[in-house]
Amino acid sequence: MRALAGRVRPARSGAVRLLALLLCLLSAVGLAACAPADRSWADKPQVIAGGGATGVYYAYGQRFAQVLSTHLGARFTAQRTNGSVDNLERIGDGTAVLGFAQGDAVADAVAGTGAFPEPIPIVAVARLYDEYVHIVVREGSDVRDLRDLAGRAVSLGARGSGVDLVARRVLGAADVDAASIRNPELGLEASIGALRRGEIDGFFWVGGLPTPGIATLAADTPIRLLSIPPAVVDAVNAAHAGAYRQADFPIGAYGTGTSTVTMTVPNYLVTRADAPEGLVHDATAVLFDERATIARDAPAAALLDRRQAIFTDPIALHTGAVRYYRETHD
């Protein structure tokens, strides 16, 4: 009996293992679970396209890269760039796997218009937060509204940036000829330095609140923010498919004593359509799980909201991000 029992037990155990294997193969979910995750992407450095050194994008990208490296067992680094258009081009050519971009630049990249001679195969990971259009002048400047910018030295943003895109749209809607402006094409850091030294009359910037570099500027150089009237916002939207909305800078922003009307544009974290699903899924999870950590250096990260993150029109979500949102759906 003892010998018989010894022979039966292995047979029964083998049958159980065989049944488990068959169930795994027959189940779509089980099949995915049985297959080893493809982590070949972890064998090489991964780049996040950020922004200028004193902007929100770069601060966000740096901290995000750090937590991704810690949690995903791969090396992620954030690169300084000229902003949205530059970031989208880097993702398109494979230089970066993730990047930050304004919704208006994203729409142009998808359609292959504006700064993009042909469509770029991009998809979204998440809608992050809304960015505010800043037009910064010195407190004592005689520039009081958009029309006063004509003929002045004003930086419209670095060439190839989303700032330049928005600045030209705002000026056009306000009937200000951009060609009349002496535009040194400076990024945020250089614009701040030039305004501080009195070399320019003002500069455009598009970013979250507060933008670190502008907060630092306001601490030693009194500044004022020009308003973008609702009629101008409406005109920009009429020409560009409603990508913008009206908003107010809160009183006290950058030390200002009055409320200023402006416009905002949504900001996305984007990737290539063919980026590895596992990478994007895991990166999306880290983005949400570590948002409080990221927000210590990039306060805009605290605005991330899973309920709003899926609204990324005009681009679709990456399949890896979709899987994450389905797994965490309440």
Notes on the protein architecture:
With 330 residues, the protein is an alpha/beta fold. The protein folds into two domains: 41-129 and 268-327, D-Maltodextrin-Binding Protein, domain 2, CATH 3.40.190.10; 131-266, D-Maltodextrin-Binding Protein, domain 2, CATH 3.40.190. 42% of the residues lie in helices and 18% in strands. The protein has helices spanning 2-26, 28-34, 56-72, 84-92, 103-111, 162-173, 188-196, 212-220, 230-239, 277-289, 291-295, 306-309, 319-327; strands at 46-49, 76-79, 98-102, 122-138, 154-155, 202-207, 223-225, 245-249, 260-272. Strands 1, 2, 3, 4, 5, 6, 7, 8 and 9 form a nine-stranded mixed beta sheet that branches. Mean pLDDT is 88; it is low at 1-36.
Question: Any key phrases for this structure?
Answer:
330 residues; alpha/beta; D-Maltodextrin-Binding Protein, domain 2; nine-stranded mixed β-sheet; globular
Please write out the topology.
Elements: H1 2-26, H2 28-34, E1 46-49, H3 56-72, E2 76-79, H4 84-92, E3 98-102, H5 103-111, E4 122-138, E5 154-155, H6 162-173, H7 188-196, E6 202-207, H8 212-220, E7 223-225, H9 230-239, E8 245-249, E9 260-272, H10 277-289, H11 291-295, H12 306-309, H13 319-327
Parallel strand pairs: 1-2, 1-3, 5-6
Antiparallel strand pairs: 3-9, 4-6, 4-7, 4-9, 8-9
